[in-house]
Amino acid sequence: MGSKSLFRKRSLRVEDDKRTKAAELTLGQSFYPICLVTILFFLWGFSYGLLDTLNKHFQNTLGISKARSSGLQAAYFGAYPLASLGHAAWILRHFGYRAVFIWGLFLYGLGALLTIPTIINHSFGGFCFCIFIIGNGLGSLETAANPYVAVCGPPAYSEMRINLSQAFNGIGTVVAPVLGSYVFFNFDEATALRNVQWVYLAIACFVFILAFVFYISDIPEITDADMEFQAAETHAAAVDRPFRKQYRLFHAAFAQFCYCGSQVAIAGFFINYVTETRPGTDSSTGSKFLAGAQAAFAVGRFAGVGLMHFFKPRIVFGLFMTMIIVFVSPAITQHGNTGLSMLYITLFFESIIFPTIVALGLRGLGKHTKRGSGFIVGAVLGGAVVPPLVGYAADKHGTPFSFIIVVLFFVASWTYAMAVNFIPSYRENADAFTVATVGLGDSIITTPDEEISVPAGRMEKA
C-alpha cells in the first residue's frame, strides 16, 4: 500500500483545468523549485559552450570547412522546433512540467552516450546525429524550464527571476571553453578525441542522476488554470483572444529566431574570428578568449538583473538590444584587439536578451502559455539557419566580413525591443506584470493535495 501511495504521489500527469498551489507562490515558496530548475540552465549553457569549442576542434582534427562545421549548430538548434512544437509540447500539455524535465534529461543523457561510438569511428555525421538527439533533449528542457521559471513565483519579478536563473547558463558557457582549451587543443588528435568521450560520459551520468532527483522531488506544477488566474489578477491584456490572434507572441518568436541565429553565429565562429584577426593567436588561446567573452555574457546577466530592480525590464531590454548593434558593427572592420573588445562588449549586452524575450512574449497568454512557450523556444531554430549562412560567407570572404549577416539579423530582432517600449498595446501588456502583487501578499499555500487559502480581497476572484 505504501508503495502504491508513493507512485501515486509521483504521478507525472496534471489536470490543466484545476488550479494548484503554484498560482500564488511567494519568493520563499518558489526558492527550491527555482534552484532545481536553474541546474538545467547550467547544463545547457555548458553543452552550448562545449559545442562552440568543438566547432573549431573538428575543423582542426577532421579538416572540414567552416560551413560544414556549422553542421553542429544546425543539428543542435534544428532539433529545438521538433521538441518545442512536437513531442515536448505534447508531453507538457498532457502531463506537466516535471514530466518534460525528466524526458528532456533522458534524451540529453542518451545523446551523450551515443556520441562515444561516433567519436571512436571519427564520424562527424554520426556525431551531428547525436548532437541532434541532445538538441531534442535540451529543446524539451527549454520548452518547460523557461516558462516555469518565468511564472513560478511573483509575476512582478518574472524577468528578474528568469534572467537570474539564466545567469547560470552563462556560467556553463564559461566553464566549457576553459575545459576545451585544456582537454581538446593541448593534446594530439587521438588523446583529444578520447577526452571528448570522457566528457560526454560524465555528462550522461550526471543528467540521469538529475532526472531521478526531479522524479522524487515535490515541485509545484503550473497549470493553464494557474496562468489564467495570474493573467486575470495582473489585468494583462488579450487573455481571452484566440491563439492565432496573439500577435505579440508571434513577433516575440520572430525576434527570438533572429536574435538566436546571430548569437549562435558569433559564438560558433568566435575562435575563427580571433585566430584570423589577431596575429599569433592559436585555437587554444582563442578558446580561452571565448571563455572570457562568455564570462562577460554571464556578468551581463547579473548586471541586467540588477538594473531591472530599478528600471522596467522592457527599458533594460531595449537598451541592451540597441547596444548590441552599436558594438558588433565595428567588429566587421576593426580587427585585432579592437575587434575582440567589441565582441566582448557585444556578448555582455547579449546576456539578457533571450530570457527577456521569453518572459515578455509569454505576458498575458493565460491558458495559451504552454503553447506559446513552444513557439518562442522553437524560434531557437534561428541558431540552425544563420550560422551556416555566416559560415559560407566566412569561407568566401573571411570571418569578420561575414558578421554583416549577424548585424542584419540583430536589427530584425531589435524591432521587438522597440515595439515593447513604444507601441502602447505592447508596452501596457509588458508593464501589467511589473506592478502585480500576486505572490507578494499573505498567501497561505498548503500541500499540493490541500485547498489554497487566498488573501482577503482576492476571495471573490479565487
TrEMBL record:
Membrane topology term: Multi-pass membrane protein
Superkingdom of the source species: Eukaryota
Q: Name one GO cellular component term.
A: plasma membrane
Q: Is the keyword ATP-binding in the record? A: no
The answer on whether this UniProt entry bears the keyword Acetylation reads no
Family matches, as InterPro entries? MFS (IPR011701), MFS_trans_sf (IPR036259), MFS_TsgA-like (IPR050375)
Q: Report keywords, A-Z.
A: Cell membrane, Membrane, Transmembrane, Transmembrane helix
The terms under GO molecular function for this entry are:
transmembrane transporter activity
Check the record and name the SUPFAM superfamilies matching this protein: MFS general substrate transporter (SSF103473)
Its subcellular locations are: Cell inner membrane
Pfam families xrefs: MFS_1
- Transmembrane segment boundaries: 31-51, 71-92, 99-118, 124-145, 166-185, 197-217, 249-271, 291-308, 315-333, 339-362, 374-394, 400-423
The protein's name in its UniProt record: L-fucose permease
This protein's species is Rhypophila decipiens
